[in-house]
Design goal:
Number of domains: 2
CATH class of the largest domain: Alpha Beta
Largest sheet: 8 strands, mixed
Distance between the termini: 54 Å
Radius of gyration: 20 Å
Strand content: 15-25%
CATH superfamily of the largest domain: Dihydrodipicolinate Reductase, domain 2
Number of strands: 14
Strand order of the largest sheet: 8-9-10-7-11-12-13-14
Structural class: alpha/beta
Number of helices: 11
CATH architecture of the largest domain: 2-Layer Sandwich
Order of helices and strands: EHEHEHEHEHEHEHHHEEEEEEEHH
CATH topology of the largest domain: Dihydrodipicolinate Reductase, domain 2
């Protein structure tokens, strides 16, 4: 089966999606890739060879297009995705779902109302190391989870935040938690669960001039009540791969970038080699597109098999709610 796809939004984040579409050319036909900016459409066409248009409305209205990949800034996700959904199209949305939990929840609700699939690009769940760790936890290989923590020690130069809208509430909806660490936070939450946020802080360090936070940390209770810690920053020069550490009664797991070390009591360590890059430094697109391709492949499978994709709107919404909870607790120190 070949699914006819449209793409809306052709900024820098479109690159791994375009490469994935090329890899899956036997399964997907790109009818049109749209941006209201002529320079972006032309550059996209020159590089990837897809048909392009500046008429976004024509993509949404085209009855031949079965699904749309929405890659606009988060502030436009609800408007664009809702129009696509109500036009009968399935939608794959870049993270985050929207600027606020309320707008994100509406997007998810519309998808359910009209019976169309909503997938979200949270590709860290699709890395081979992440899938192996998920299987190990599900199979009880680590035993009872006793603690877990995640760390995102990334770096973005001031020039990144000097671009219009970067790190603002109006365009991004938040800082490091919403824009960079959301991938690791979503994976962390999906692996060990988070019941509640016990304490938190979110600040803008002296490294950056920006509206939102470039450092955040939180103490949390995991799904089973065990202790957990979340730390994320874009002020950690030169930037290092994100990591998740999980300890259990039978062993531990260390997930660093796309690599995994699984240590089971009494047995040999199991390892999966890391990815070539994770986008942790100034080169924000310095990572392979394999996980994006896996997201798209799963989304196509969901359409063909009439099932939910692996990362549903509800799943992405749960991770966005956790971010909102961390920021709420951080803003109310008297409650901690």
């Amino acid at each position: 089966m070949v699914t006819t796809i449209g793409v809306i939004g052709l900024g820098p984040g479109a690159e791994p999606h375009a490469k994935s579409l090329l890899d899956l050319a036997d399964r997907v036909h790109v009818k049109a890739a749209a941006s209201r900016t002529e320079l972006r459409t032309q550059a996209f066409a020159d590089r990837f060879g897809f048909p392009v248009t500046t008429d976004v409305d024509s993509v949404i209205a085209d009855p031949a297009i079965q699904a749309v990949i929405v890659l606009t800034p988060a502030s436009a996700h609800l408007e664009v995705a809702e129009r696509c959904l109500r036009a009968g199209k399935h939608v794959l949305v870049e993270k985050p779902l929207e600027l606020t939990v309320e707008r994100a929840a509406k997007l998810v609700q519309v998808g359910r109302q009209v019976g169309r699939r909503v997938g979200v690009v949270l590709q860290h769940r699709f890395r081979p190391a992440s899938l192996r760790l998920r299987a190990a936890i599900d199979a009880g290989e680590l035993g009872e989870i006793t603690a877990a923590w995640m760390l995102v020690p990334w770096w973005r130069p001031q020039a990144y935040y000097d671009e219009p809208g970067r790190g603002t509430m109006a365009r991004d909806g938040g800082g490091v938690l919403m824009t960079q660490a959301i991938h690791t936070l979503d994976l962390f939450r999906s692996l060990v669960g988070v019941q509640s946020v016990v304490a938190a802080q979110a600040v803008t360090t002296s490294m950056h001039r920006m509206e939102t936070e470039d450092f955040a940390s939180a103490l949390v209770r995991l799904g089973n009540g065990a202790p957990g810690t979340i730390i994320a920053s874009t002020a950690a020069y030169p930037g290092s791969p994100e990591r998740i550490e999980i300890t259990g009664t039978k062993g531990s797991a260390s997930l660093i970038g796309g690599g995994l070390r699984l240590s089971i009591l009494g047995g040999p360590d199991e390892t999966i080699a890391p990815d070539a890059g994770t986008g942790s430094g100034a080169g924000m697109m310095d990572f392979p597109h394999d996980a994006h391709r896996a997201v798209l492949s799963d989304f196509l499978d969901a359409i063909e098999q009439d099932r939910d994709p692996m990362v549903t709107g509800e799943e992405a919404l749960a991770s966005q709610r956790l971010i909102a909870d961390i920021l709420t607790v951080a803003a109310n120190p008297a409650s901690q």
